Amino acid sequence: MYKVVDACIEKVKESGLKYEIGAMSTTFEGEFDEVFDLIKVMHKIPFQLGCERVITVARVDEKAGGLTIENKLRNHR
After folding, report:
1. Which PANTHER family does the record match to this protein (predicted)?
2. Which of 23, 31, 38, 41 minimizes the C-alpha distance to 62?
3. Element (H, E) at 45
4. Rounded to an integer, what is the distance from CA 15 to the centroid of its chain?
5. Across-strand partners of 19?
6. 2-76 CATH pick, 3.30.9.100, 3.30.70.930, 2.60.15.10, 3.20.10.10
7. Domain ranges of the chain
8. Of the four, 11, 28, 33, 35, which is 20 to 30 A from 62 by CA?
9. 28 SS3 class
C-alpha cells in the first residue's frame, strides 16, 4: 500500500500544483482541468503497480473569485 501512496504523492509533487499532504488525504489546488488530469493519472497508478481494484474519492471545493488552501486554513494555523 505504501508504494502506491508514495507513487501518487510523487505525481502530485511533479505536477507543479500547490499541495499539502495530510495524514488521511492530500489537498491540491489548481485550474479545474489540471486538477482532474492529475486525478486521472493518480487513479491509474495502483493498476500500474499491480492492484486489481481502485476506488478514487475526490472532493472539489470551488468558489467564484477563487479559493486557496491558505485561505481555507488561515484561521486554523
Report:
1. UPF0045 PROTEIN ECM15
2. 31
3. helix 32-48
4. 10
5. 28
6. 3.30.70.930
7. 2-76
8. 11
9. strand
Q: CA-to-CA distance for 74 and 43, rounded, in angstroms?
A: 30
Nearest to 38 by CA among 4, 69, 8, 3: 8
One-letter amino acid of 66? G
pLDDT in tens, the chain (77 residues): 789 999 999 999 999 999 999 999 999 999 999 999 999 999 999 999 999 999 999 999 999 988 899 988 888 87
Nearest of 17, 28, 30 to residue 58 by alpha carbon = 28
The pTM (predicted TM-score) of the whole model is 0.85
DSSP state of 19: E
Please give the Cα distance from 21 to 4 (Å, whole number): 15
